[in-house]
Amino acid sequence: MTQRTSFQIFEAEGIGQREWLAFLDSWTGWEVFAHPNYLNLYQEAGHRPVCVVYRCSEGCVIYPLILRDLRATAFWGSEGEELYDTVSPPYGYGGPFVEGSRDKSALIARFFQEYEQWALSQKIVSEYMTFSPKEEGPLPYPGEVVVKAPSVVRTLDLSPEEIFRDYKDTLQRHVKGARRAGVRIEVDLTGERTPHFLAIYESTMKRRNADASYSLNVEFLERLNRTLSGYFAYFYALLDGRVISAELVLISADSTFFFRGGTLAEAFPAKPNQLLKHQISLWSQEQGKRFYILGGGNSAEDSLYRYKLSFAPQGARPLKVGKWILDHNRYEQLLTARHAYEKAQDAHWVPKPGYFPAYRAPSLPS
C-alpha cells in the first residue's frame, strides 16, 4: 500500500501565518520555538521565518527555521546568485519535533529525505540547527552532529519534596535561607513589570561583561509580551518590596525554558535566585510540565553551568547542534567570495575555527 504523505511550508506572514497558527492550535506537543511570532522577534534584512511540516500515516514532523537570503550579505551581495542558508530559532532550539509516532527515528529519517529535496530546490546551501536538549539518544540527521556545550534539564516527574531533596545539599540550605530572609516570589504572566526585569537584566549583563548579542531592549520585550501571550512567564524575587532577582521563562506544552534573567549583586547574600529557580520548578510542575530546561554554560567547568547543575545533579544533557552542507560546490563559492571581499577591504580574514557556516565566520583577533 502506498503511504500518503504531505510536505507543507508555513510562512510567517499573511495567510501563511494564519495557517501556521491554526496548525499550532492542533498540535498537542506545541513548542514556543515553533511559533511564528517567536521567530519574528529576530527579523533582519533577508530573513524569512518558515515552518516545514511533514505528515504521513505514521505521524508528523515539525521543523521551524529561518531562511537567510545570502544576497543580503556584503560579501555575496544583491547581484549574486539567489542562495540561502538556514538557522534554527535563535536562543532556543529547533526540531525535528515529532507528533504521534512510535518510531521517531524512522519518521525523522523519511522527513529528511523529503526535506533535502525541498532544500536543494530552494537553493539552500547549508543549515545550522540546535536540537532540543529534551531528546536523548542518537538522531538520524544527515549532516554532522556536534556537542556544543553541556546543558541542564530538571525533570519534574517527582513530588515537590523529592525534587527539593534531589538538589545539592548547599542549594537546599540556600533555598531555606532565602525563605528565612523573607524573600518572596511573584509571577507575572502579562509583562506588566517588564521595566523591573530589564533593569536587573542589564545590570547583570554589565557585571558579567556579556557579549552584545545577549542585550535586550524594551521594544523587544514589549513585542514578546504582545505577540506571545501564554508562551512566557516572568518570575520575580522580592525582598522588602524590592525586586532583587528576575527570570523570563518561555513555555511549551511539556516544558518551561530559562530564557534570560539576572540578580542584583548586593542581593547575593539573601540567595534570591536559588529560591526563584526552585519556585519555577514547582510552578512548572503545577502547570503539568515534564521538564524545566535551565540551559548551561560554555563548558563543564563553567561556574554558571555548575550552579544550574545543582538543581538537577542527574540532569546533565549534551546540547547538540547540526551542521549540514547541502551544496558543497556553492559552499566553496561562498567561501571564495568572502575571502575576495575581505581582501578588497584590506582585511586579513581568518575564519574562527569551528564556526558554521565558515563563510559567515567572524575573523580571529589579530
Short summary:
The protein is α+β, with helices and mostly antiparallel strands. Helices cover 32% and strands 28% of the residues. The chain has ten helices and 13 strands.
Task: Write a structural description.
The chain folds into two domains: 160 residues, Aminopeptidase (3-Layer(aba) Sandwich), CATH 3.40.630; 168 residues, Aminopeptidase (3-Layer(aba) Sandwich). Helix content is 32%, strand content 28%. With 366 residues, the protein is an alpha+beta fold. The protein is globular, with a radius of gyration of 22 Å. The N and C termini lie far apart (62 Å). It has ten helices and 13 strands.
Looking at this protein, list some descriptive labels:
single chain; 32% helix; 13-stranded mixed sheet; 2 domains; 366 residues; Aminopeptidase
**Total number of β-strand segments?**
13
What is the SS-derived class? alpha+beta
| Ends distance | 62 Å
The main sheet comes to:
13 strands, mixed
Summarize model confidence as the mean pLDDT: 94
Domain module count = 2
CATH topology descriptor of the largest domain: Aminopeptidase
Describe the secondary structure blueprint for this structure.
Elements: E1 5-11, H1 14-26, H2 36-39, E2 47-56, E3 59-69, E4 84-87, E5 97-99, H3 104-121, E6 124-130, E7 144-155, H4 160-166, H5 169-180, E8 184-188, H6 194-207, H7 218-227, E9 232-239, E10 242-251, E11 255-263, H8 272-286, E12 291-296, H9 303-309, E13 316-325, H10 328-344
Parallel strand pairs: 4-6, 11-12
Antiparallel strand pairs: 1-2, 2-3, 3-4, 3-5, 6-13, 7-12, 7-13, 8-9, 9-10, 10-11
